[in-house]
Amino acid sequence: MKNFKGFLALLVVAFALGGCASLPSPEKMQAAVAGYEVPHLPPEGKAVVYVVRPSSLGGLIRFNVFVNDKEAESEMGYTRSSQYIYFFVEPGEHQILSKAENWAETNISAEAGDIIFIQQEPQMGIIMARNSLFKLQEYEGKYHVKTNSLGTVIKTEK
Predict the structure, then answer these.
(1) Tens-digit pLDDT profile for residues 137-157
(2) Which residues contact 91 (CB under 8 A, 6 or more apart)?
(3) CB-CB contact of 119 with 65 (8 Å)
(4) Dihedral of CA 122/94/146/156: which sign?
(5) What whole-number distance in Å separates Cα of residue 35 and Cα of residue 19?
(6) Mean pLDDT throughout 68-84?
(7) CA 35, CA 39: separation in Å to the nearest integer?
(8) Residues 116, 130: Cα–Cα separation, whole Å
């Protein structure tokens, strides 16, 4: 019980220190990425998915990213605060899942050549950070890829 209280106190401090920074206006984001090319373009016949986690909230907690199911072999990588990962998918319908205290999910429809941006949004949880997923507009996604660091990519193809 003593270890749990210490862990809980550490978690509260981490959340308090990892406050939210305000983002620039859409116009400033668009200007910042004018002419910017993401570091990984989709190979022939595939789409690339970037999952970004620009928030520093819950930075010590990793958010694992999966494609189409929750099985270990479907894990593509994970992020911590101010990080992104990328991976390639075949054209078609896919479910992107993110594991924190909870499972978050969003569905995408990918076409060959697409560059898709998804954001992981942390929230306070009971034991650790929770998360949600939502799609981003291209300029927002590019901005977050440009201004954040690469997370842990386990594999780039499912």
Answers:
(1) 999 999 999 999 999 999 999
(2) 45, 46, 47, 110, 111, 112
(3) no
(4) positive
(5) 31
(6) 97
(7) 13
(8) 23
Structural domains in the chain, sorted by start = 2-153 (2.60.40.2890)
Cα dihedral 24, 59, 109, 156 in deg (nearest 10): 120
Q: How far apart are CA 45 and CA 42, in angstroms?
A: 8
Beta strands in the chain (DSSP E): 47-53, 63-67, 75-79, 83-89, 92-99, 103-110, 115-123, 130-135, 149-150, 152-153
The 10s digit of each residue's pLDDT in 17-74 is 444 457 889 899 898 899 999 999 999 999 999 999 998 887 778 999 999 999 999 9
Mean pLDDT of 108-131: 93
Closest CA to 62 of 141, 131, 133: 131
How many angstroms separate the CA atoms of 25 and 21, rounded? 13
Token digits of residue 133: 């997923």
Q: How far from each other are the two terminal CA atoms of the chain, in whole angstroms?
A: 41
- Say whether pTM exceeds 0.70: yes
Nearest to 101 by CA among 126, 79, 82, 134: 126
